[in-house]
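To whoever is on call:

I kicked off a structure prediction for a single chain this morning and the downstream step that reads the tokens threw a length-mismatch warning. I double-checked the sequence; it's 113 residues and nothing unusual in it as far as I can see. Pasting both halves so you can look.
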Amino acid sequence: GQGGRGKDILAKLQGMVDTECNSDFVCPESVTGCDEIIDKPERPLLTWWNMSEEEKVEAKAEMEAKKDIFKEQVLTCACCDGKTVEELVGRDRIRVYDEDSSGSSLDEEGSES
């Protein structure tokens, strides 16, 4: 199945960070949100098939915007706060695709914020 998918995301993000984190990267004055796992935007698969063409176009645009924000946040935290990509998106979270890792469900404990 999909076992390798999470690694691809990490590799892609890492590549992006390696490319973008140079002297041209401008850090904001205050870097926030880097101590929490940054949510990767997902396409609404459940509703996708029932959407009209207009709705799909809208959803795609929204998805792109969210992706940009996500990437921006990852870059800012990696370039300016010295975080690793893995710390930012969470190694465990990426393995969510592998059903058999349900034994270590860290998310369910203490997530009542």
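Update from on-call: the warning came from a stale cache, not from the record. Cleared it. Sanity check on the structure: Helices lie at 5-20, 45-48, 53-80, 85-89, 91-94.
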